[in-house]
Amino acid sequence: MKDKTIFTCEKCGSQSPRWAGQCSACGEWNSMMEEKVEQKVFGKKEKVIGTVGDVKSARELISTPLLRLKTKIDEADRVLGGGIVPGSLILLGGEPGIGKSTLTLQLASQFATEFGPVLLASGEESAEQIALRAGRIGHADGDLKIVGENILENLIAAAEIEKPKLLIVDSVQVFSSLELSSMPGSIPQIRIVTERLLRFAKSTKTPVILIGHVTKDGDLAGPRLLSHLVDVVLTLEGDANYDFRLLRSVKNRFGATSEVGVFEMKEAGLVEVKNPSAAFLEGRAENPVGSCVATTLEGTRPLLVEVQALTAPSVFGYPKRAASGFDLNRLQLIIAVLQKHARIKLDSSDVFVNVVGGFRLREPAADLAVALAIASSQKKIPLSTDLTAFGEIGLTGEIRSVSQIEKRKKESQKMGFEKIASGKEFRSVSEAIKKVFQ
Ligand code: TYD
Ligand code: MG
């Protein structure tokens, strides 16, 4: 045995035999950390002999469908592709304070009631704290066991004794292995914790949910390499100032990645939102100037959200543009198109855009609603209350077609929106503005 030193980038996980001030793979500065690797040295005559694994025919495998354990929290089951697959390692990422511990606590107690003991290992909060919270949000039932722990080896030992039907680890950043001297949360520690849990999951067929904190810019703190190791990556997102939370699947070896689950953070934990469109439109004023409803798609799910715009004369020479829940560059583009092709004068106006409910509109299909909201504010004329819009705006002022039009229409009508503005009704932004404001 001989020890070798390698350097691993804390940000992207790339490795190099030499230290460098800047990672050559991702460009991060001061991120290369020293790591010792054990090397097995085999003599010339020694041969490594493998053991035969479990070989099955494809037909046999297809005829035995994957077992999925339904958590009975529908919004989570859907995102998981129908339930938790035994032996899978699931990573749940999200910003601190967004509700990861709350969600997993609820999953844990629900799962315990359905399938038997669940072990929740927390290195972040004490067992008493968690039990208190579980009691408060009414989820202390079932066979829920809690251990306050942050040593990997102790956690595995506890899991081997308890033999839970589901293991939850909160969080990957605070657990560390006694085998390594590096700090908890460092790349080597994160890797060993994940690898051991993966081995535990596969060898015992126990599903494991591993929580991981994500930084503001959406990176899983530390390693992207984590997502390669695990079977499923879920993220819990939302604006900390609002109560809505979206559960997304970013990677799923056992299902689609286009599903989203919608929750609302309440006194009693996360509550499923069965009709998100209704929830996002709740409290909308009757005929507001500068407001337009957008029909957007989150994964495969159509959603109606309100876009608000405010235009006001600029106090300083340089007009201000600001957006919350919408991409600022995209907003600049829409403003330019409005000025050039729809004769909406905005060069001496500040423009503010806000998506209601802390929702983030990511698809270009939201362009038209943003354009109409701005036009409405500038003209001081409200849009029809039962109008909803979707369509991507091109640089020549055209409204481009978007995906899943039928789905969007159906959801719009279901929510009582009879008038639709899209690339089908209008060819260009100027035509849309002419017609909807007459
Ligand atoms: P938490 O699950 O601890 O977040 P994370 O594990 O992602 O860091 O949730 C933190 C926030 O949620 C906290 O600010 C309080 C709030 N919360 C509620 O509003 N209601 C509840 O029932 C619970 C448990 C938490
Ligand atoms: Mg937590």
Tell me the layout of helices and strands.
Elements: E1 2-9, E2 15-16, E3 32-39, H1 58-63, H2 74-79, E4 89-94, H3 100-115, E5 118-122, H4 127-136, E6 144-148, H5 152-162, E7 166-170, H6 187-204, E8 208-213, H7 225-229, E9 232-237, E10 244-252, E11 260-266, E12 269-272, H8 276-281, E13 291-298, E14 301-313, E15 321-324, H9 328-342, E16 349-355, H10 367-379, E17 387-389, E18 392-393, E19 399-400, H11 405-414, E20 419-421, H12 429-436
Parallel strand pairs: 4-8, 4-9, 5-6, 5-7, 7-8, 13-17, 15-16, 17-20
Antiparallel strand pairs: 1-2, 1-3, 9-10, 10-11, 11-12, 13-14, 14-16, 18-19
Helix pairs in contact: 9-10, 9-12
Bound molecules: thymidine-5'-diphosphate and magnesium ion (MG).
Note the main attributes of this structure.
438 residues; alpha/beta; Rossmann fold; 9-stranded mixed β-sheet; 12 helices; 26% strand; globular; binds thymidine-5'-diphosphate; binds magnesium ion
Explain what you see.
- The structure is a single chain.
- With 438 residues, this protein is α/β, with parallel strands linked by helices.
- It folds into three domains: 2-39; 67-274, Rossmann fold; 278-436, Ribosomal Protein S5, domain 2 (2-Layer Sandwich).
- Helices cover 28% and strands 26% of the residues.
- The protein is built from twelve helices and 20 strands.
- It has helices at 58-63, 74-79, 100-115, 127-136, 152-162, 187-204, 225-229, 276-281, 328-342, 367-379, 405-414, 429-436; strands at residues 2-9, 15-16, 32-39, 89-94, 118-122, 144-148, 166-170, 208-213, 232-237, 244-252, 260-266, 269-272, 291-298, 301-313, 321-324, 349-355, 387-389, 392-393, 399-400, 419-421.
- It has a nine-stranded mixed beta sheet, sandwiched between helices.
- A hairpin with a 5-residue loop joins strand 1 (2-9) and strand 2.
- Helix 9 (328-342) crosses helix 10 and helix 9 (328-342) crosses helix 12.
- The chain is globular, with a radius of gyration of 26 Å.
- The termini are far apart.
- The mean pLDDT is 89.
- Bound molecules: thymidine-5'-diphosphate and magnesium ion (MG).
- Magnesium ion is lined by residues 100-101, 124, 170.
